[in-house]
Each structure stands twice: as structure tokens, then as C-alpha cells.
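[job 4471] stage=fold_predict status=RUNNING
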Amino acid sequence: MTETKSSRAFASDNWAGVHPDVLQAIADANIGHAASYGNDEWSGRAVEKVRELVGADCDVFFLFSGTAANVLGLQSIVRPYQSVICAETAHIYTSECGAPEKHTGSKLIPLPSPNGKIQTADIEAQLGYTGNEHHAQPRAVSITQSTEYGTVYSLTEIRKIADVAHKNGMSLHMDGARIFNAAVSLDCTLAATTREAGVDVLSFGGTKNGLIAGEAVVFFDRALAKDFEFRRMQGMQLSSKMRFIAAQFIALLSNDLWKQNAAHANRMAAMLGKGLASVPGVKLTQSVDSNSVFATLPASLIPKLQKEFAFHVWSKPKNEIRLVTSFDTEESDVSRFVELAAKT
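[job 4471] inference complete, writing C-alpha cells
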């Protein structure tokens, strides 16, 4: 990727900075000594903040990494002779360097997902060998909300998937790296798109919405959490100075900061998508539901745009790019990108 001269980028919301309120929360927690490994006042308050938004009847565990949240969350569901059904575009399948299969010992079964979503009929088609000892047994379905294509499952779509999973003895895992963007897009509560829709285990992501390194695993099926403290420790995700992860979540989940951040990112993506759709030779390839824009454009245009803005080429054969907006994206960034695309 060409070096960028822009202070902001469209490569990923991981590239964004940290929200000032989050930095201040860390500074406020950096006073004196506090008990380690989550036995501090901040960790307890952060758990309660999560429960206020998703429902009290759950177990919450904080960790550093979104990949770890996915891997350890799935590890709590599946055994090595079982399998996880997911989208062929799922982060657990394409972008975690085989970590889910390595650490769970289980097989990932990818399903077609041209818009990032999987369908119940395709899930049911994988169940023909249930009970056959020669085949890995489906035990979990994993979906991403919002998806890797920036699309968003409706509440009805999630519920249908959950019903199929539960009917067939499977649990539903949700990769919620961008769960806040999805909730804002749906104009619903976090509980509505997770617990109330039938999710059993949630990877609850904060890093993409203004934190430094803050993720969590939330168990709505609390039986699956019975030994998670050991899994987290063995998985090298137990922070000794947990208060600094917890303080980030307290800030994010207070005063609707999570909603403000996600709403701004979504709004910038909508503006970017609308602008690019008007540029000759540019075609949006996915609906802009959250904070990602996917588009095809002339091959010669890509390197010219990358001289000023960093972004990823999603598919080189198609000349399809991915643009991701963040809580700190500015309208001037969007306007400049569209202007360059139209001029070049």
C-alpha cells in the first residue's frame, strides 16, 4: 500500500485514534494502586455497564483482542470433533490466520455470503450427517454483525438463524466487532440485536469504536461460561491491570458515547457512498448499512487515490475497494476523497 499524506484514512476503523473521553478515563483510573486481574472497582462497574445495555442475566469477561474474543468464545461452545458454520467472508474464516481451527481443534464450514450474510437453508443443508461419526458435527453457527461487507442482519434474520441453530442443538455465536454500528443502523438497542434475537455468545467489540484495546466475551447462555476464566487465562487474555480495559468500557458505555461514535461513522459512510455513486465509472457493490463502503472503480484510479488516502483493495480481479469510516472521520475527508475520485 502506498504511504498516505492524509491524517485520516479509510483503511479501517482500527486505524482511528482513541476517543478523548476514553483517554481521560484511563488517566482517571491511573491513580494509586488497585487490585489486579479484574478485582478492582472499575472492572465491576464495567460489567454492570455492559449488563445495563444487553440485559442483566449474562456473564461478561474483558480481554485485549477481537480475534481472542472470537476464538475463546467459540472454544467455550465446540469440541474438536465438532464444527462451526460461518460465512465464507467471516473474519474467523478469512482473517484470523487459522486461529479458530488451531485453538478449538474444530472445523470451520463456510457458507456462501455474497452480501456478507448466511441463509438458514444453507445452514440446514450442512446437517445431513448429524450423528454420523465420520463427519465433524455442527455445534455452532457464527455470524458477524455488522458483516464484513458492512451489511447488517435484520432482527428477523438473526432470530431465524438462532431458531435453526437451537432446533438442531447448536449455539449461536455473534462476532460483534462492529456491533455498535449495527445497532445504530437498525435503530435498536444492543439487547435487541443480541440476547433478544437469540444470540448465545457475543464477541463484544470496543476497539473499532474508539477504544485502545478493549474487547469482551458476553455469555447469554451462562452454562457455556462455567470455566471461561480458565480459558481466558490459558489463552493469555487475562489482563493484570484490568482496570485500564474496564475504564475504557465505562467511558464508551456512558452517556451514549458508543451510539454517538457509531452514528457518526455510519453517517460518514452514507455520505461517502452517496458521493461515490455519483462518480462516473464507480459502482457500489454492497448496500451501505453501517460504516463500510464497497465499490468497484477503474483500475488506474486506485493508485492515484491511494497517494492521498489509505484504503484496502478488497478484490484485485474486480477492482473492488473497501472504505471504512470511523468516529473521527470528518466531512472534509469524505468530500476530498469523492472530489479526487471525480477528478482523476
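[job 4471] summary: The first helix runs from residue 20 to 29.
[job 4471] exit 0
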